[in-house]
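Hi all, long-time lurker, first post. I run a small reading group and we've been trying to get comfortable going from sequence to structure in the token notation. Rather than ask abstract questions, I figured I'd post a concrete chain and ask someone more experienced to write out its structure so we can walk through it together at our next meeting. Sequence below, copied exactly:
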Amino acid sequence: MNRRKFLHRSGLLTAGALATVAGLSCNDDAPANQDQQKAPPPDAPARGTLEAFGIQLWTLRDEMAGDPVEVLRQVAAFGYSQIENFEGPRGLWWGMSHTAFRQHCDELGLAPVASHCNFVQDFETKAAQAAEVGMKYLVAPWVGPQQSIDDFRRIAETFNRCGEICRQHGLRFAYHNHDYSFQPLDGALPQDVMMQETDPELVDFEMDIYWVVTAGADPVEWLNKYPGRWRLCHIKDRKKDAPPDEREASCILGTGSIDFPRILKVARDQGMQYYLVEQEQYEQGTPYECARANAAYLRRLKI
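-- Answer (accepted) --
Happy to help. Here is the structure in token form:
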């Protein structure tokens, strides 16, 4: 199942569901730790390999549905030190309590830095639990193409509300792009609208490099256009022989057409914090074999 079908079946995202977020409570009187509200970007590491990298567990979505703890064991063995979770059919914590999920991560030396989630259902609870286990981000994975640019303006308002809820719990909110937000609509680009009409104190962005390239845009231009707004990224390669209109063409890192040394150097310089592998098609091996190969690529990568 691809991500779009999965998200639609999970109730993400309809206009009616978006409207419900407008009613989420935000306790304006809640104390807010200033350090939690907007942490400055860390000092850039010295030129060389990435200091840390992780994996979006969607890469191993079928395996997660079967034995999520074994998936965590495998990705730790491959050399990943961070994970980005996603909300699956058994919930955000895969049938476990949030503290049990964190305990498994701790035992394996994995830092659960973020999770994609259904942000229009029980979001306050998810934010509280994510903060309790030390996550840094909850991420909106998809909103889908819209009918008008005003729809994206309303989505930006929803993101600000979610960002405020996250701030009150001591973590951050972000939006993960697909290709549709780089396609003109009513004379504007939805990605511009969402970035310009969200509060930088409340909302960050996760750049899926693959989808920027698939849309025909240049990730470096977007990193430079909005410095400090892109704090997470999906490192996902695109097959060299994929025609421009082929959307589902991800492959093992280093075997495709995307120039990651160029892009990730700029990303680091512009405030990127989290580098997360993702792969969705597996013509070159099993999902586990691809995850292992992707980790090996990032260990060798020089930026």
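A couple of things your group might point at:
Residues 19-46 have pLDDT under 50 and may be disordered.
The chain has 13 helices and ten strands.
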